[in-house]
Write a structure and sequence with these properties.
234 residues, five-stranded mixed β-sheet, 9 strands
């Protein structure tokens, strides 16, 4: 999951200490291909998601699967993107990093200050503690549902929260409707559209996206705004 770096403040967030790889890992490197790793890239991403999710579950860290793998868990097509995304709270970042390092994963801090990154089975894992410029909260994680991800149960962000994060990330510098449109179409029956219109509909980019969804008949048009007659009482 990506957010436009130029739209974001560069200061470090409270509760997240500086995490850097050890001297032997100054430059993040992909792990060597695992002998048992499937050749199919989608399956490789799923394997990485399952391993990290199982590790976080065992350590009882609050988290939720996000990104394209979460869309897949909710019934989307198995057309996964280039990485695996998990949401964690800012105050848990240090503990999550320690847990993953104990499990043998390389964890490092990228230039962006809203996530950590890890390597698992040669796949990139993003550990996001700020979603669309808002800190990941306990309430957000509590709305997640336990779903099967290729036979492994783990908490997955709700469809409404998944799309809310994508809409809130739209800006003049990052506005790829084409990447979000298939997700909205696939999950439309599971999304609280009224809540999304209330939270995002006043912003120009999400409003334009809602208009496209209406014209494509993916969602019904919003009701006309209430008006007050200028005439006095009769």
């Amino acid at each position: 999951m990506r957010q436009p770096a130029d739209d974001h403040a560069t200061g470090r967030r409270a509760g997240v200490s500086e995490l850097r790889p050890s001297d032997g890992d100054r430059v993040p490197r992909r792990e060597a291909p695992h002998e048992d790793l499937p050749l199919d890239r989608n399956q490789a991403i799923l394997q990485a998601a399952k391993q990290v999710g199982s590790t976080l579950k065992k350590a009882e860290h609050p988290f939720a699967l996000a990104g394209s793998v979460a869309v897949y868990a909710h019934g989307g097509t198995q057309n996964l993107q280039h990485d695996v995304d998990f949401c964690i709270r800012p105050e848990d970042a240090d503990a999550v990093a320690a847990t993953l390092r104990e499990a043998g994963l390389t964890v490092y801090t990228p230039p962006e200050d809203w996530l950590l990154k890890a390597d698992c089975l040669g796949q990139q894992v993003d550990l996001i503690f700020e979603l669309a410029h808002e800190p990941v909260t306990t309430a957000l994680l509590e709305r997640a549902r336990d779903l099967s991800v290729d036979s492994v149960l783990m908490p997955v962000l709700s469809p409404t929260d998944l799309l809310r994060g994508l809409l809130a990330a739209f800006s003049e510098h990052h506005c790829d409707f084409g990447a979000v449109l298939p997700i909205a179409r696939t999950l439309r029956e599971k999304i609280d559209w009224a809540a999304l219109r209330r939270d995002c509909g006043d912003d120009p980019m999400p409003a334009a996206f809602f208009f496209i969804l209406e014209r494509l008949e993916i969602i019904p048009p919003a009701g006309p705004p209430a008006t007050v007659s200028k005439e006095g009482p009769r």
